[in-house]
Amino acid sequence: MYSKFFDYELPLFHHLHLDDAAAGKVGRMGKPEAYYFPPQLNNHLGTFPVTYFGFDPDVTRELVRARLQAYEKGDNRITELSRAYRIELGTGWYTPPGVVHAPGSVLTYEPQWNSDVNSVQENVTSGEVYPRDFLVENVPEDKKGDIDYVMSLMDWEKNVDPHYRATFFRPPLPCPRTEDGLSAKWVIYANPYIGAKETTVLPGRSVTLKEAAAFGCIIVQGFGSFGPFDAEAAGMLRFGQLSGDEYFVSEKAARGGVKLTNASRWEPMVILQHFGPNNGEMPKEVPA
Questions:
Q1: DSSP conformation letters of 35-58
Q2: What is the pLDDT of residues 152-191, one digit of tens each?
Q3: Distance between CA atoms of 150 and 65, rounded to whole angstroms?
Q4: Of the candidates 134, 152, 169, which is a domain's last residue?
């Protein structure tokens, strides 16, 4: 797995990612993914800070099929059948393969499986027109004209889950405090693929960060040191310039502990950490 940031002024198209079975038919891997909306990087929410997920529980397969059949006949307006949720900073979502979604215009931290395999089901988004190739880009050649096959890429039960928010919304879960000056919370959890934390070192403190598994991380606020390295959140970078904000920690080093120092007298140092499926400390359930 890996993580990335995306930051679009406009919302993205309504699309889904394929599961392993469907992706395997075109020589790819499936793509589960998750979102977290870091407050440190969102001083502006863009033009449309709302994300669509799935379809309204009353929507039928026939209604969705009709919108996909109209892909080349004008705006299919498929998000009219969906559900929209206002984005709440400091929270996130888990999005399994097969769920149609249209991310909003907020800078998003996205831990995900190492794949990018999708089917774009909305043909006009904010005035941008997408050809039918986007709908069937990852469909076997002999199925590109088969709307029923495209429909089969959806995990229908998850798309129309009447309790979608309760199932896939991820409020932050505080971790047990291990030492003064260090706090952490799980922001991505309760799925079999990926996890993430937001970890904070208070001003002027040196702490030891221990984890049960290897992780990648990026500093989004503050400066100091990360192990033997000088470290700081990136402010303004020009193309090609290096930064001191991104690190990988092996499992051996994570279990032994990494010394973190916040060199600021006033500002916290905030780190986003992402894990694969082997961190046994990741919460397995969403709180009621």
A1: EE--GGG-S---S--EEEES--TT
A2: 999 999 999 999 999 999 999 999 988 999 999 999 999 9
A3: 9
A4: 169
189 closest CA partner among 254, 276, 100: 276
pTM of the model: 0.95
pLDDT at 9 over 90: no
Tell me the C-alpha distance between 17 and 113, whole Å. Answer: 11
- Provide the number of structural domains found in the chain: 2
Structural domain boundaries, residue 103: 2-169
* 287 occurs within a structural domain: no
C-alpha distance across the termini of the chain, in Å: 28
- In CATH, what number is assigned to the domain containing residue 188? 2.60.120.10
In a domain, 150, yes or no: yes
Are the C-beta atoms of residues 60 and 151 closer than 8 Å to each other? no
Residue 21: other Cβ atoms inside 10 A: 11
Asked which of 136, 169, 202 is the last residue of a domain, the reply is: 169
Distance CA 57, CA 64 (A): 12
Per-residue model confidence as pLDDT tens digits over 198-241: 999 999 999 999 999 999 999 999 999 999 999 999 999 999 99
Q: Are residues 117 and 143 in the same domain?
A: yes
Place of tokens 């929209």: 84
To which H or E segment does residue 125 belong?
A: strand 124-125
The C-alpha atoms of residue 189 and residue 146 are separated, in whole angstroms, by 36
3-state secondary structure of 229: strand
**Nearest by Cα to 62 from 87, 89, 81:** 81
- Nearest to residue 194, comparing CAs of 247, 115, 106? 115
Side-chain-side CA neighbours of 93 within 13 Å: the count stands at 23
| Rounded Cα–Cα distance for residues 12 and 95 (Å) | 15
